[in-house]
Specification:
Helix content: 40-55%
Shape: elongated
Largest sheet: 5 strands, parallel
Number of helices: 8
CATH architecture of the largest domain: 3-Layer(aba) Sandwich
Bound molecules: calcium ion
CATH class of the largest domain: Alpha Beta
Distance between the termini: 38 Å
Structural class: alpha/beta
Radius of gyration: 18 Å
CATH topology of the largest domain: Rossmann fold
Number of domains: 2
Length: about 230
């Protein structure tokens, strides 16, 4: 199986019976997934701790803890790709999910085919990035499997998106990355928040790295990791 072929175990968290059945049936019959379908966030968090899956499709509106909280709890220990299902086509919901570390969202109502296409795009984006387990530059060491980052041997705490952004710079040392390119590589093309999001995250990342010159602003072009 190539890195971006579909298949394997997918966790679907959806309390709506009709939508859940439609998604499960389509993904199993058309795309070769084995779908584990759970109706609550609590069950999903417990299940994922026991059995890792390749991707999670997560509804926001759930009984008990909602999809945002599930996403936050999963991200505390897992980088599994997460697609959120938003009940309304409302920007704040989508931005909130992505800020919590979801990889993409699909707004209801959606067709199963649309969801399947989005899943394929996410797998391409996420799994192709996972090649080097450890990235280093300057005094920075980033470990993907344990999701930790040290600077001069001292551990620093990054959010999920700050981690992905730093990994992206470390993968492209000395190369100028435009805001649009960073948005595509780190957030995915469908991110509704705009390129200002990139500026905000770069500023936070610089502050946490402690050396503002590590990530340089290239006027009118974007950002780059400074040459060593
Ligand atoms: Ca629901």
């Amino acid at each position: 199986m190539s890195a971006t072929a579909t298949g394997g175990v997918l966790l679907l968290v959806e309390d709506d019976e009709a939508i859940g059945r439609l998604v499960k049936t389509y993904l199993e019959q058309q795309d070769g997934w084995r779908v584990v379908w759970l109706r609550s966030g609590e069950e999903a968090v417990a299940e994922l701790r026991r059995h890792p899956v390749r991707l999670v499709v997560l509804d926001i509106g759930l009984p008990g803890i909602d999809g945002f909280e599930v996403c936050r709890r999963l991200r505390a220990y897992s980088k599994v790709p997460i697609v959120m299902l938003t009940a309304r086509d409302e920007e704040p919901d989508r931005v909130a999910g992505l800020e919590l570390g979801a990889d993409d969202y699909v707004a209801k109502p959606f067709s199963p085919r649309e969801l399947a296409a989005r899943i394929k795009a996410i797998l391409r984006r996420v799994e192709q990035r996972n090649e080097d387990a450890v990235l280093t530059a300057h005094e920075i060491v980033l470990r993907r499997d344990s999701m930790d980052v040290t600077v001069s041997g001292a551990q620093i705490e990054l959010t999920s998106k700050e981690f992905d952004l730093l990994a992206c710079f470390l993968e492209h040392p000395g190369i100028v990355l435009s805001r649009e390119k960073l948005l595509d590589l780190v957030w995915g093309m469908t991110y509704p928040g705009g390129t200002r999001t990139v500026d905000v995250h770069v500023a936070q990342l610089r502050r946490k790295l402690g050396d503002p010159d590590t990530i340089r602003t290239v006027r009118g072009a974007g950002y780059k990791l400074a040459a060593q």
